[in-house]
Design brief:
578 residues, elongated, mainly alpha
Length: 578
């Protein structure tokens, strides 16, 4: 069951966003550098990237709201101390894990497109024109690092306006692109002071908002920066403030928790341990929340479901129905982040049944033809993950009508869409004989063989996997159908690539064809393998060349095929098959 266990397309979110953004046009603002598909030299399978990523240190755009007349429900200092003590051990473990993880300085951060777009609009306008509900200080500090030594005295001032000026100054420093001075800010020792201010019962929503914004941008840096936020005891306070009456404070707290959770699985699990997941689920479930709140919550949920090992099933049970509901929100960004959440969950077999019970399959099939390529790509990945499970799960997806939709998707001119569709199809043909027959009856094989003939690299390799998985369990009669569709010349083309795995895959599939020809000859009581001549016409010369290939596995397989089918007059060697 080759196709059911392999994870050919296990790329990181970073790479997939790069691939998607290149074709999205105006749908996103900041397209990162494209990672080209290898079409000539190496066709090695993509590797898993275990490093976790966080949202960049940029300024979110806020929607105009009327500030509340009263402060947010205060967090008592004693209560905060009790909470910090109760979670000290877990925080220390999470901080240690964050400290030991790989830094993220040179990596693209999650949510970059949205964050850069927001930052661009925010910084292009004067502060007074910003849509934030909170006014800037009457006498702000000049925005330069020379004022940094003045911050600590102001933070400890008894004048609330001085405190706010200092926090506002720190926040403005940390939205500077591309290299905010996070290290310089941390070395002042301000983070514990900021957290203590956040816990004060008399802290106003205006001050809370600015403090959380500073913590958000600090946690968007390296893992060491995130560790500072975790060790400061900020996480329980941020969870509490997700219930703030101020929408600005609530949304910023969700954003900060999403950044911490996106750093690594230990930080993710610590945020969940502190109640962050359920708090964000509650925020995202609000029916009348403003759209920016829903977007931020949907993004944060995707980070809380990201990473391996996957979060425990009981911890994210409430996320599945919520993510399915978010797919119906009329907003492309919310849809994408909900799909990212479902994509991460669908990678684990234990979540597949839950996703199906929540009615996910019909909704996802509709999104396979969505006009947004990002949405379409993620929907394809989710379907591919589901059919990578057992035959029963695959059959549920087939019964929902996935094959006619895949037939339409395979006509796409976008390489990443065609590649994902073929990967999904290869997992279906790795199922039962009846499921292979369903693919044949849906008339998808001609499109697959066309992809083998007219595309290179990953697309041709995925198409070859579809054929290889199908032929490995097909009857001689079914193999004859593939031969009639031109599979032998298409396989000969695969032997011309330089990627070792690609060539081995082509040789293995060619062997399936010749073995089926041998069985067919036996059934008819003849000695001549009906497919030997076809292979000889299109692939014999290449097979002979591959006997001298630098890779030993390729040499052995080419020699095996030649000695088994071409060394004697009958075109077969009974001893080999025995």
């Amino acid at each position: 069951r080759v196709g059911k266990t392999r994870l050919i397309m296990s790329t990181t979110r970073e790479v997939e966003e790069q691939l998607s953004e290149m074709a999205l046009g105006d749908e996103v603002v900041a397209a990162t550098q494209f990672v080209p598909e290898d079409v000539s030299s190496s066709d090695e399978d993509d590797e898993e990237d275990d490093d976790q990523q966080a949202k960049p240190a940029t300024a979110p755009t806020k929607v105009t709201t009327t500030p509340p007349d009263k402060d947010v429900q205060p967090v008592a200092a004693a209560g905060a101390a009790t909470t910090a003590a109760a979670t000290a051990a877990a925080a220390a473990a999470a901080a240690a894990a964050v400290s030991s993880s790989t830094t993220k300085e040179n990596q693209t951060k999650l949510g970059q497109s949205r964050a850069l777009q927001s930052n661009k609009s925010a910084e292009a306008q004067p502060e007074t024109d910003r849509s934030s509900a909170f006014a800037r200080p009457s006498d702000p500090l000049p925005q330069n690092l020379e004022q940094l030594p003045e911050v600590m005295p102001l933070l400890k001032s008894k004048d609330p306006e001085d405190v706010y000026r200092a926090v506002f100054y720190l926040r403005k420093l940390l939205v500077v692109e591309p290299n905010p001075p996070i290290d310089r800010v941390i070395t002042t020792g301000c983070v514990p002071v900021l957290v203590a201010l956040l816990a004060r019962p008399d802290a106003s929503p205006r001050l809370q908002f600015e403090i959380i914004w500073v913590l958000t941008n600090i946690s968007s840096g390296t893992s060491e920066h995130t560790r500072v936020v975790v060790e400061s005891g900020a996480i329980p306070l941020l969870v509490r403030l997700c219930g703030s009456k101020s929408e600005d404070v609530c949304e910023q707290a969700v954003w900060a928790l999403g950044n911490v959770a996106g750093d690594n699985v230990y930080a993710r699990d610590y945020v969940t341990h502190c109640g962050g997941l359920q708090a964000i689920v509650a925020v995202a479930s609000k029916s009348h929340a403003r759209m920016t709140m829903t977007r931020t919550s949907a993004w944060a949920l995707s980070n809380l479901c990201r990473g391996k090992p996957a979060p425990p099933l009981d911890a994210v049970t409430s996320v599945v129905p919520l993510a399915v509901r978010l797919l119906h929100v009329n907003d492309a960004e919310v849809k994408r982040d909900a799909l990212w959440t479902l994509r991460y969950l669908s990678e684990s077999a234990e979540f597949a049944a839950s996703l199906i019970r929540q009615g996910l399959v019909p909704v996802i099939l509709q999104l396979l033809v969505h006009p947004s390529m990002a949405v379409q790509t993620l929907a394809l990945r989710i379907v591919g993950n589901l059919v990578m499970g057992d035959d029963a799960t695959t059959q549920v997806v087939l019964n929902a009508g996935v094959l006619p939709v895949l037939a339409q998707v395979l006509k796409s001119r976008k390489h990443i869409i065609r590649k994902e569709a073929l990967w999904t199809l290869s997992n279906i043909t790795a199922g039962s004989q009846q499921q292979v027959d369903a693919v044949v009856k849906a008339n998808l094989i001609p499109s697959v063989i066309m992809s083998m003939n007219h595309y290179h690299g990953e697309i041709a390799r995925e198409a070859t996997w579809v054929v290889c998985n199908a032929l490995s369990i097909s009857t001689p009669e079914r193999v004859q159908y593939f031969v009639q569709q031109g599979v032998v010349p298409a396989l000969a083309e695969q032997l011309r690539f330089r990627g070792v795995r690609h060539i081995l895959l082509g040789l293995e599939t060619l062997d399936h064809v010749l073995r089926a020809g041998h069985r067919r000859a036996q059934e008819k009581g003849v000695q001549k393998n009906p497919y030997v001549d076809l292979v000889e016409q299109s692939a014999l010369h290449k097979l002979e060349e591959l006997q001298n290939h630098f890779n030993d596995d390729i040499c052995r397989k080419a020699n095996e095929i030649l000695s088994t089918y071409f060394d004697d007059e009958d075109g077969m060697d009974e001893a080999t098959f025995e």
